[in-house]
Amino acid sequence: MKLTVSAATLGFVALTAATSNQYINYTTVQGYFEQDLESTDPSTYDYTSHNFGLIDRSYDSDKPASKNLTQWERFHAELQALNDNSPKHVSYKLFFLGRHGEGYHNAAESYFGTPAWNCYYSLLTGNGTTTWFDADLTTEGINQAEIAHRYWLAQYKTQHIHFPDAYYSSPMTRALKTANITFSNLPLAGAGAATFLPEVKEGFREGMSMHTCDERRSKSYIESLFPTWTFEKGFTEEDELWTGVTVEPSGAQDERSRAALDDIFGEKKVTKRPDGVCVPHKKNDLVISVTAHSGEISSILRVIGHQTFKLSTGAVIPVLIRAEEIAEEEPTTTIAWTQSAYCAAPPATSTASGCVCQGSATPITSGYPVGGTTVATPTPF
What we know:
The chain is an alpha/beta fold.
């Protein structure tokens, strides 16, 4: 299913799913990871506690010699067998969905409190100390990405885990840098693994609200950080999705996430790197890394029918996805973006029920919010 984004008059953006004579239906293959189990508590779960959550169990693909293999080696053989034994219109891929490390916007929300953050502070670009527009990683965020890096290395050394065959990242700075810290300098060549050469995809960015942390920087800026990384076809120089006025509903985000999955599972040609080298996208890539955001990962999980599993900053969840091409036409759907209420000054109180502005001021629901200014007085966090 392909999506187009159309910006209409002030305060309205629509996502439209174009009609096609076939679509891909996604489901989660359960029984392989602890994160699939209802008994697993996302709020306390540590993905580094045991093999990214891979359950110790036997597989239909096990052979007598499998007893000499690690659980991850046996799982990869199982993944290959699932694809080898499935009809042509069905395929399986293992996705490692990683949330970026803590960003300055996360620290700001913790400092101001979520209601005050949503009603006012998130509409600013920062305070007198730092910036949370397209937020960078905090020191803790860098540490969380380094934990992921060390864990991947340990899993390779002790479990012979199969490194990703392809890498994708949200275009937001915090995700780009998390992916780079996590996967750079791993022994990929020695393992016979694919080169770490991520593709930057709009579809994997955070759900877009009026928050300035949801606005991305230019393509040129991303290229200045990582000049050899690739971009999906049609990636624009400037951000044409974030408006600062409207909010992307969860249904619209899910369609965006679905389109990104379609792009990965579908037949693709090549991506041209900035240096002119063309990189082929292989349909038989079985292990996929996606570095994204809490809301975006939640959206992907909804699309594939996985149970709700909220990730803390820097956490990773592996999911085995079954994709089946359905030879039916889906109707065109249009989902309108909405507007949220906000205050023109710091709110009087912070409540979970909504914005409570100072004095008798009514929360604003139209026009550009605060205008990208910064907090006048530096705030420590």
